[in-house]
Amino acid sequence: MTIRLGDNAPDFEQDSSIGKLHFHEWAGNSWVVLFSHPADFTPVCTTELGLTAKLKPEFDKRNVKAIALSVDPAESHQAWISDIEETQGTVVGFPIIADEDRKVSALYDMIHPNASTTATVRTLFVIDPNKKVRLSITYPMSTGRNFDEVLRVIDALQLTDGYTVATPGNWKDGDDVIIPLTVQDPDVLKQKYPKGFTAAKPYLRVTPQPNK
């Protein structure tokens, strides 16, 4: 199954490090970062889950829940969590899905046979409170993810959901934003962008970021 932007995130029930988990019910009205890793007790994954755990205050500010997945059993996850907490100096406060039967991996197309026929690649989804998929990123097994980029995109998504703007390349929270081409009426421009804007070209109009 291929998951595309704007699709409904498939619901599922599966075992996890915190017991049986019903995904949509667990997600509630939060944003979700759902990410897979190839296997427990592996070095790159250990650093990734440690980074995710340390970002909990940042996720909380953005109403985001994190949830990880691998094809190892829940007992393995529990033992590995102890290693993560010891080596990364943090507390793993999010669940890890135990996808032994690869049901969730198939739903979310997380196994890429040309990379591995058994292990999930480093796939990451950002899912909004309406259970819509808003971002998908897939990394090779040898490359750890950049979780600062995940936060940056969530900031951009939450901003553009609330205001009629787009974000330029390398945008960070607080930077200027772009007025979409769909907004042309002068009165609407004054109403929506009271701080004014500059236009390098008729199609390239930049305005200060609205207050969130």
From TrEMBL:
Q: Which UniProt keywords apply?
A: Antioxidant, Oxidoreductase, Peroxidase, Redox-active center
Cross-referenced SUPFAM superfamilies: Thioredoxin-like
A single MF term (Gene Ontology): thioredoxin peroxidase activity
- List cellular component terms (GO): cytosol
Which residues fall in a coiled-coil region? none
- Where are the active-site residues found? C45 (cysteine sulfenic acid (-soh) intermediate)
In Gene Ontology terms, what is a biological process of this protein?
Answer: hydrogen peroxide catabolic process
- Which residue numbers delimit the Thioredoxin domain? 3-159
Q: Which domain of life is it from?
A: Bacteria
PROSITE patterns assigned? THIOREDOXIN_2
Family per UniProt? Belongs to the peroxiredoxin family. AhpC/Prx1 subfamily.
Q: What does this protein do?
A: Thiol-specific peroxidase that catalyzes the reduction of hydrogen peroxide and organic hydroperoxides to water and alcohols, respectively. Plays a role in cell protection against oxidative stress by detoxifying peroxides.
Name of the protein this chain belongs to: Thioredoxin peroxidase
The organism encoding this protein is Rugamonas rivuli
UniProt lineage: Bacteria, Pseudomonadati, Pseudomonadota, Betaproteobacteria, Burkholderiales
